[in-house]
# Entry
Amino acid sequence: MSENRKLIKIATAGSVDDGKSTLIGRLLYDTNSLTSDKIEAIERSSKQRGYDYLDFSLATDGLVAEREQGITIDVAHIYFNTNKTNFIVADTPGHVEYTRNMVTGASTSQVAIILIDARKGVIEQTYRHFFIANLLRISHVVVAINKMDLVGYDEDIYLKIKSDFEVLVGKSGFREDQISFIPVSALKGENIAKQSEEMPWYIGNTLLQHLEILEPIDLEENSVARFPIQYVTRPKTAAYHDFRGFSGKLYGGSLKVGDQVTVLPSGNETKIKSIHFFDQEFQEAAAGSSITITLEDEVDLSRGDMLVKSGIEPQSEKQISATICQVNNKALKVGDKYILQHGVNRVLAKVDQIASRIHTDFSGTEEVEQLKLNDIGKVKLRLSKPIHADSYLSNKSNGSFILIDEGSFDTVSVGFID
Amino acid sequence: MNSLLIPNPKEAESIHILREVAAQFERPVLLFSGGKDSITLVRLAQKAFFPAKIPFPLLHVDTGHNFPETIAFRDKLVAELGLELIVRNVQDSIDQGKVREERGRYSSRNSLQTTTLLDAIEEFKFDACIGGARRDEEKARAKERVFSVRDDFGQWDEKNQRPELFDMLNGKIHLGQNVRVFPISNWTELDVWEYIRTERIEIPSIYFAHLRAVFFRDGMIWTANEHVFREVHEEVIERMVRFRTVGDMTCTAAVLSEAVSLNDVVAEIRDSTISERGARIDDKRSEAAMETRKKVGYF
# Structure
């Protein structure tokens, strides 16, 4: 499948007022990703609404409620490709009440595009988007200063916004080379796929060129191997009578036949006997593979347990400190009990402490009694059994979790381990 | 033995999802239409559980208006892989008076399938229904989660979906609820075709160009057949066509094509200017057609 193209996952943040949906629609249009029937549908709807231009936002705002209100409510996933690259865009809503969608949309992305309306400059919403990109350790941030057509393509306005934003960069964990600025007009297509003639003062890549040349640092593939057991494969057929394979997805690093491994939580050590993918056997599997492993020794291993290389074990903790984002209407309070899901493992968790609520404008923290929907805060949790986790900073997938309400079974929080 | 396994990220994600279904649910089922997406799902499920058998049955909701090629293909696949197949018929729901046949020139049994599906879910107490829907197919699908919780009435509450972080899937539900699972959510139509080509997966013959008796209506190519309503003046002609999606005969339009091999098909999709669902008559009913059907339990 698209074997030789690289895959880049992008999160877009910004509200419809900043022209985010228009920007995505424009990217689709300029990469010939919109088919003629979709373009016709856009033309028809634009005309019905009395617009004298093509409203590309109609290509992405998929739900009736959104079309009625003209805002983006939920994360939409959009796919397009150029000759070199496959792109997946998580189009997330910008309003404060959808911070949770932004967090989940951004969690799997390597690149964030933050849109700024050139007429408004850096506003509270920009702070929040950038804060989340920083919290989730996104590899690159592209600041697209949009609607340049409405400010006469004025370089001074662009420079002012850029320097305002650079103040924020100074407060974040980002290095300067992880941030780039591009003046655009999504509506007119300036500096999206085509170099703008209206802004000769801008010397740099168009947005699309920039996205194509990015080389995101993928934490997932550059840390240490973690193999959470998802499923025990026991065929019990004549041909595979004694086969007992441990199936799961490998994160963080590779595993080889013969590797000395430690079984968590028991701490027993053994060696990898074979690595299977469908009807083939492999000497080694790279991070990201969904494989089945057999071991040299009979060990007790079931769903939720973990295999790691001996000597580089994660922390096994019954108490964890984490930053969480509340994604449900139900508030999180001290003493509450939840089901904590870490990868494929579930344990019970009790909220021991809410240390603070974090202001998403980089202005600090405050003490609170509870965390409400869309709040981001620091908490301490006590667990019924230890989980085998890394810090989010060192291993994204093994450093994150969700909290599930025991009554409704809804996912109420997403968490990132300190 | 091979040396190093470099994963195809989309395939690895789909396998992960299928294993989560087997681990988290009591009675999962794979909704099988005989189309390329559900055939791809079967291959992915083989890969997820090999050397064990696929640990859930297939369910086909048969409108009775399917292409005979699809049904023959289905039966062959099931026999070859030793799978368990459950078939439930829309005709039975009609005979029981639960749904009424549509009339007129656009009549179709497509939307009637929902009732038959919900009845089957209740009959077998299925708690997870695996489907081949993809987010790139349609705008409302673009917002659907990988694990999508449905209530007792099969309804989708699009404003209250569970956030999905990384690979963590929350499949905890109450009795009576069920989850629709979409393992190839993040695949595009081209991904599916390239995968079918790489894996040499067999697919029904109607995906390739063939001579067929058709008629033209509203700029679309309809199959001329007893199940498809046709006005007297709508002239039947023979054309080289193929199908890009395979659903009920009454709601799937053909496209003119000379593509007789997988290479031809992949090349055609790459250059195509018409979207896949552009040939779905059911989506043309209104801009919100898909979302409205999903809310009431359509797959």
Notes: Chain B touches chain A through 66 residues (CB under 8 Å). Helices of chain B lie at 9-24, 36-49, 68-81, 90-95, 113-124, 189-199, 262-271, 289-295.
